[in-house]
Design a protein that fits this description.
Length: about 150
């Protein structure tokens, strides 16, 4: 059995924190309402000086997406609207729509002032240059989303 690393504990903590945040925002377990929750990947390349965050946002207008970086966190918010179709009677309903808000904990210091965000074919890609130290507490920087 291999030892548990600090990274494993941090990741478990983030997942538990996100689970409880979701419980309060959307009564998902009660089955009363479902909400869209985009999937997120984040990575950095071994020889690169930036962190990349990739978010799946199919059907979302990039002009409605808000990206804000602050401290060691990144907020991605917006809405995936349900298409309007007159006389619709559902026989099956699995696709999630509605407002969304994802908070991504950053495990490295980044420079949000030099960050970029682009949206192409339903994928939002945020590039955050690594910084020497975290931004001052309470400092938030909006990142403009450029359509691709």
């Amino acid at each position: 059995m291999s030892p548990v690393s600090r990274h494993d504990f941090d990741r478990l903590h983030d997942e538990i924190e996100e689970f409880f945040a979701d419980l309060w925002q959307v009564p998902r377990l009660a089955g009363l309402r479902r909400a869209y929750r985009p999937n997120v990947d984040s990575y950095h390349l071994r020889d690169a000086d930036d962190l990349t965050v990739v978010v799946e946002l199919p059907g979302v207008d990039p002009a409605s997406v808000r990206v804000v970086a602050g401290g060691r966190g990144l907020l991605i918010a917006g809405e995936r609207p349900r298409p309007k179709v007159e006389g619709r009677i559902y026989e099956q309903m699995e696709i999630e729509y509605g407002p969304f808000e994802r908070q991504v904990r950053l495990h490295v210091d980044v420079d949000p002032e030099r960050a970029t965000a682009s949206y192409e074919k339903g994928i939002l890609t945020i590039t955050l240059p690594l910084g020497r130290r975290a931004a001052a507490a309470g400092t938030r920087t909006s990142i403009a989303v450029e359509p691709g």
